[in-house]
Design brief:
The complex is a heterodimer of chains A (about 575) and B (about 290). Chain A has 4 domains: about 5-180, Pyruvate-ferredoxin Oxidoreductase, domain 3; about 200-375, Rossmann fold; about 385-455, no CATH class; about 460-570, 3-Layer(aba) Sandwich (Rossmann fold), CATH 3.40.50. Helices cover about 40% and strands about 20% of the residues of chain A. Chain A contains 22 helices and 21 strands. In chain A, the strands form 3 sheets. An 8-stranded mixed beta sheet of chain A has the order 6-5-4-1-3-2-14-7. In chain A, strands 9-8-10-11-13-12-19 form a 7-stranded mixed beta sheet, sandwiched between helices. The radius of gyration of chain A is 26 Å and the shape is globular. An 8-stranded mixed beta sheet of chain B has the order 2-1-3-4-6-5-8-7, with helices on both faces. In chain B, helix 1 (about 20-35) crosses helix 6 (about 175-185), helix 3 (about 90-95) crosses helix 4 and helix 5 runs antiparallel to helix 8. The chains are: A alpha/beta (about 575), B alpha/beta (about 290). Chains A and B meet through strand 7, helix 8, helix 10, helix 11 and helix 12 of A and strand 2, helix 2, helix 4 and helix 10 of B. Strand 15 (about 420) of chain A pairs parallel with strand 2 (about 60-65) of chain B, so a sheet runs across the interface.
Chain lengths: ~575, ~290
């Protein structure tokens, strides 16, 4: 499992949990550790109780832990909520002056965070920097990396701000080093510096890397981060990011942009996606390429707006009226999200279909470290008919019947031929028809001819662990990390493997995974939903029936310790 | 130069005598007189009798969803602002189902030309009240008469400072043609509400009814005077003004988006830029360390 620790920072919204968390996680990744961070926040701007949790290790850190090694309590509420999570050698850090409470316990470490901030940084605003320095002091880490991060972050604000922060970090660090008599942390071995990325950022960057030109969306948790990142890079990459008046407008704008000749995308949460489904059907009928990122959160209706769930797999795979092809990808890590977003663009353009990136709040907001991304793996083909290639034709029909069902998609205005499409059933030219013969041919073209070709593009699930397992854990999307770590943990005594699906629609053809499942003594579907939607999809697509299911639907991601206990209970019944 | 024959599309499935025929004729004449070739513009339409309009022309066509003409039109303009984009909708389509988009298209001042076939009734679904149906009009779904106050699209548009606001009448093809030309020439979001009798379902707002009431706004009227325009836009009933009610010279959205300042998105290099794109991604990746 490797050597590593978990740090939890608890407090009210607006207290700067994320500032401390960001600084620490970047210190750890720059130091070369594997890092996983995740936030648990309420749907409010100020107050309440939130926490951010950072796990670092010399082995891959892919999922949240329940045991906490350092608890930084920025409010009093953090103590009763999280004290029991402390590990045997765990330390709780607090400031008795700002919490107005003194704890006479051995593993509680009182640091005058605000006073140190005032004294050394000249302002209470430096408290977060003091706390960050203190955590590094407790761990026995130096300040070099943090100093670099401070210079990067505040350099633009001038030397005074940089120096004040450096002094504040130093004060917290020194106080912790000298004052924490109970602190006995052994640092894991560092490797080469890593990058740290959240799912939303990976989707946005994947889109930019795929030639995204137009992004329209209406803000909604947990997908707003995609728009934020894309808007921040709009100028560099030459992308128009338009905030639409609603999700209906967002998808229809994206379709208009795509029709006009550019790569277009929209993103939303599943609630917003409910508004988009008529537009999705329009994409299907008009064969207009579009990429749609959908972030799941607990529902029905508004549900738990800032929390996580995997309860919209069947919705997204089946949404919208009528029959038309689509692809749905459910990445498990930011790395997978980056490459799958690229593949979604490629397939959307190649087959003129809607392509989905289905995430959830856990993947969207959590950050994972990785060694880097391989840009040579990116697919980038322009399938559109533009400029001279379009001008050189003898005639043009937007929905011409072809062997593959894929008709040439031309840029209107590039040649004196007309580009016509319609949400009504239409003929090859795109004009409204009512006759049965054309309808049949159009369905064959749009759906039946394309489907087998699209299916061939779909990759099989990833097998991890034993190649002849007794027990198979099956999951999809954001449970990748926790399942992988569960396999590592349980492999010590058992023959076990994980089968993880990221390309879920069309359902991957059997490349041997059914044999593996049938030979195993126990196949468990692990899902962040109440009913086991993937298990149902799998039964519908393959006839395979799971012997056991582990479901979590309290709005929280699986944590390794509880998941292992539940898996052991299922395995114990064998 | 384009000719009228170039615009001969499919044969219309409208009822004989439908006001839409007059709009079609006026539109064809307008684009021919403006020297526009059929491939030089896109018509986006919704659903309803007006939604079929582009099929009866010849032009680039995106016949989308009911109520959703303006969002695709906005996406098209932001991707290719060198392309003329025209939206055609009915009163139910644009003022009912898609009302929200109208508000925001006006706010954005996206340079789209919107022509609304306003017959004060739902035709395709056979005779229910529309947002502009007059109070008291009895239909099969409003047996006690329309109980809501009708929307005044022009007053609404003037209130939102819409860049170009006009009203035409489908029976006055010559003047309607001129209005369409003026709307296309205008830089800014343009709403032309076109009164169009529905001969099958609207027994109230007939050709005769309109002919007794419509008048052309007098020369010398200043369409840049917003307060006067608001008064004129509210006129309905005994006297109904036709012509340009209001206009302003607000900058269009397309000119305010820095990313498309030098060239439309669709003209920005695609394939040849791949190495450049990779370099940008590589540089963006540095932000994650």
């Amino acid at each position: 499992m490797g050597l590593g620790y978990t740090i939890k920072i608890g407090g009210e919204a607006g207290q700067g949990l994320q500032t401390i968390g960001d600084a620490l996680s970047h210190v750890f990744t720059r130091a070369g550790f594997n890092v996983f961070t995740y936030q648990d926040y309420e749907s409010r701007i100020r107050g309440g109780h939130n926490f951010t949790q950072i796990r670092f290790s010399d082995a891959p850190a892919l999922s949240p832990r329940e045991r906490v090694d350092i608890l930084v309590a920025l409010d009093r509420e953090s103590i009763p909520r999280h004290e029991a999570e402390l590990s045997e050698a765990g330390i709780a850090v607090y400031d008795s002056a700002s919490l107005k409470q003194k704890y006479e316990k051995e593993n509680f470490f009182d640091i005058p965070i605000e006073n140190l901030a005032l004294e050394h940084g000249g302002s209470k605003l430096m408290a977060n920097t003091v706390a960050t320095g203190a955590v590094l002091g407790i761990l026995g880490m130096g300040l070099d990396i943090l100093s670099g991060i401070i210079r990067d972050a505040f350099g633009r604000k001038g030397e005074d701000v940089v120096n004040a922060n450096l002094r504040a970090a130093g004060a917290g660090h020194e106080f912790a080093r000298k004052g924490c008599l109970k602190c006995a942390f052994t640092l894991p071995k560092a490797g080469a510096g890593k990058m740290l990325m959240a799912g939303n950022e990976a989707v946005a960057l994947g889109a930019l890397a795929s030639g995204l030109k137009f992004y329209a969306a209406y803000p909604m948790t947990p997908s707003t981060g995609i728009m934020l990142y894309a808007a921040g890079k709009a100028k560099d990459f030459g992308v128009v990011v338009e905030q639409a008046e609603d999700e209906i407008a967002a998808i229809n704008m994206a379709l208009g942009a795509s029709f006009a000749g550019v790569r277009a995308m929209t993103g939303t949460a599943t609630g917003g996606f409910s508004l988009m489904v008529e537009g999705l059907s329009l994409a299907g009928m008009t064969e207009t390429p579009v990429v749609i990122a959908v972030g799941q959160r607990p529902a029905p209706a508004t549900g738990l707006p800032t929390r996580t769930e995997q309860a919209d797999l069947l919705f997204v795979c089946h949404a919208a009226h009528g029959e038309f092809p689509r692809v749905v990808f459910a990445p498990g890590t930011p790395e997978q999200a980056f490459y799958l977003t690229n593949k979604a663009f490629d397939l959307a353009e190649k087959y003129q279909i809607p392509a989905f990136i289905l995430t959830d709040q856990h993947l969207a907001d959590s950050q994972w470290s990785c060694d880097g991304l391989d840009l040579s793996r990116l697919r980038y083909n322009d399938y559109r008919l533009r400029g001279d290639a379009f001008k050189g034709l003898k005639e043009y029909k937007r929905h011409a019947f072809t062997e593959t069902g894929v008709s040439p998609l031309a840029v209107p205005g590039d040649a004196p031929y007309l580009v016509v499409t319609d949400s009504d059933e239409h003929d090859e030219e795109g004009h409204i028809i009512e006759d049965a013969a054309t309808r049949i041919k159009m369905v064959e073209k749009r759906l039946l001819r394309k489907l087998p070709l699209i299916k061939k593009e779909i990759s099989p699930p990833l097998l991890y662990g034993s190649e002849k397992p007794d027990v198979v854990l099956v999951g999809w999307g954001s449970t990748y990390g926790v399942l992988k770590e569960a396999v590592d943990e349980l492999s010590k005594g058992k023959s076990i493997a994980m089968l993880h699906f990221t390309e879920v629609c069309p359902f991957p053809e059997d490349a041997g995974y059914l044999g593996l499942l049938n030979k195993a003594r126990l196949a468990i579907a692990v899902e962040n939903n109440a009913t086991g939607q993937f298990a149902r999809l799998m039964r519908a697509e393959t006839g395979f029936e799971f012997q056991a299911k582990v479901n979590r639907f309290d709005g929280r991601p699986f944590a390794l310790e509880t998941l292992i206990a539940e898996l052991n209970a299922e395995i114990g019944r064998l | 130069m384009p000719k009228l024959e170039d615009y001969k599309g499919q044969s219309p499935a409208w009822c004989p005598g439908c006001g839409d025929f007059g709009i079609l004729t006026a539109f064809k004449n307008a684009v021919v007189e403006l020297g526009l070739e059929p491939w030089q513009f896109i018509v986006v339409s919704g659903i309803g009798q007006a939604g079929k309009f582009p099929h009866y022309l010849k032009c680039n066509t995106f016949n989308g969803l009911h109520g959703r003409t303006l969002p695709p039109a906005t996406g098209m303009r932001l991707s290719n602002h060198e392309m003329l984009v025209i939206a055609v909708a009915g009163d139910g389509d644009c003022y009912g189902e898609g009302g929200n988009h109208l508000i925001h298209a006006i706010r954005r001042n996206i340079n789209v030309k919107l022509f609304v076939h306003d017959n004060h009734i739902y035709g395709l679904t056979k005779g229910q009240a529309s947002p502009t149906s007059m109070e008291g009009m009895v239909t099969k779904t409003q047996p006690f008469g329309v109980l809501s106050e009708p929307l005044s699209p022009l007053a609404f548009a003037v209130a939102l400072d819409c860049s170009f606001v006009a009203r035409g009448f489908s029976a006055d093809i010559g003047r309607l043609k001129e209005l369409i030309k003026e709307a296309i020439r205008h830089k800014g979001f343009s709403l032309v509400d076109i009164l169009q009798p529905c001969v099958t379902f609207n027994k109230l707002n007939t050709y005769e009814w309109y002919k007794q009431r419509v008048y052309h706004i007098e020369p010398g009227y200043d369409p840049y005077d917003r307060q006067a325009a608001f008064g004129r836009a509210l006129e309905w009933g005994e006297k109904i003004p036709l012509g340009i009610i209001y206009r302003n010279d607000r900058p269009i959205l397309e000119e305010r988006v820095p990313v498309i300042k030098d060239a439309p998105l669709v003209r920005q290099p695609f394939d040849p830029a791949l190495p450049g794109l990779r370099a940008k991604v590589a540089s963006a990746l540095k932000g994650f360390y």
